[in-house]
Design a protein that fits this description.
Helix content is 45%, strand content 18%. The chain is of the alpha/beta class.
Length: 359
């Protein structure tokens, strides 16, 4: 088992990475401080892993909330189902919430924990690759709104993250590829050596080689932990983790939540960001081709949806948390392995990228 730490002073917490972690009772009891536990999961994950988690919790009063599966259910209505269970069970401020699922469950479970009685403890058991390498770490929680993704939420850190690589055995190929989009992102923004390792090992990752997956998860979480420790509330360097996300969130909103998986939208968005980086004089054409090729090898989409016109796309991008005073700001690449901080970009350059490469 690998153990990393997100260093946030008194709120520091561990990330456990390895095989067979869901069989280790001590990992659960170590982070439960009361007798009341609520498990938030979904209809896909519950039949696979809920009972396994419950076997460790016989000494606790446990309730479960099983939500519908999918980005389209990451809503205030679903959030209220968690509050309904907590209130109906008369659970106190000492309750521990366990988020058992992918990014949607982690985001909603964490937001419910942040809000219920002004804050209860929670920990993450991410069951998708994307959640293991990204959304479970760093304390971003929230829900979507029809006009914008993740626009309602809070920064709220977990007590721990338990990333069991064995749960990826039940992940379908599309979800696995979607997680690789975020893995590739880390190499692009911070670590050229890791990007080159990914170029050499992408086939092993797609084949679910446990050694390769464990290394990729560990390196991704290490970089995420470093960034969060430096900039918890995204006032500076943490924004670089959003490479491709302003484009990607616009795709998810414009096409309807659930049409593209988050990682698929981020893959397209990162390719668009690479194209825009070339237009701004940072990358050369070989760099852009190299970025696109790795996403294609990971079985991810790389072209903007034809259904979204450039004007509509830009309107959607205007609803983003990085924007300031109405100016659209995006993360670009100075080089492979080095990202810029948020930069304002003009509509002409955006339109050129969306009308040429994005079709």
């Amino acid at each position: 088992m690998k153990k990393l730490t997100v260093a946030l002073g008194e709120r520091s917490y561990p990330i456990y990475i390895g095989a067979n972690l869901l069989s280790q009772t001590e990992l659960f009891t170590r982070h439960i401080k009361s007798k009341q536990v609520v498990i938030v999961t979904n209809e896909t994950v519950a039949p696979l892993y809920l009972q396994k988690v419950l076997t460790h919790l016989s000494a606790y009063h446990v309730e479960s909330v099983i939500l519908s599966d999918g980005e389209q259910f990451k809503t205030l209505d679903s959030l209220n189902l968690i509050f309904d269970k907590l209130l109906a069970s008369k659970f106190s401020r000492n309750t521990t919430l366990i988020a058992l699922g992918g990014g949607v469950i982690g985001d909603m479970g964490g937001f419910a924990a942040a809000c219920y009685q002004r804050g209860i403890s929670f920990f993450q058991i991410p069951t998708t690759l994307l959640a293991q390498v990204d959304s479970s770490v760093g304390g971003k929680t929230g829900v979507n709104h029809p006009l914008g993704k993740n626009m309602i939420g809070a920064f709220y850190q977990p007590q721990a993250v338990i990333a069991d690589v064995d749960v990826l055995d039940t992940l379908d190929d599309r979800q696995l590829a979607a997680g690789l989009a975020e893995v590739i992102k880390y190499g692009l923004i911070r670590d050229l050596d890791f990007f080159e390792w990914l170029e050499e090992n992408i086939d092993a990752l797609l084949a679910r080689d446990k050694t390769a997956l464990t290394y990729a998860i560990e390196q991704s979480c290490r970089m995420k932990a470093e960034v969060v420790a430096e900039d918890e509330h995204e006032g500076g360097v943490r924004a670089t983790l959003n490479l491709g996300h302003t484009f990607g969130h616009a795709i998810e909103t414009g096409m309807g939540y659930g049409h593209y998986l988050h990682g698929e939208a981020v893959a397209i968005g990162t390719c668009l960001a690479a194209d825009l980086s070339q237009r701004k004089g940072f990358l050369n054409s070989d760099d852009v081709t190299r970025v696109i090729k790795l996403f294609e090898r990971a079985n991810l989409p790389v072209k903007s949806p034809a259904e979204l016109s450039a004007n509509h796309f830009i309107e959607l991008m205007a609803v983003d948390k990085k924007n300031v005073d109405g100016a659209i700001r995006v993360i670009l690449l100075e080089a492979i392995g080095k990202a810029t901080l948020p930069m304002s970009v003009d509509n002409l350059s955006l339109t050129q990228t969306l009308q040429t490469y994005g079709r």
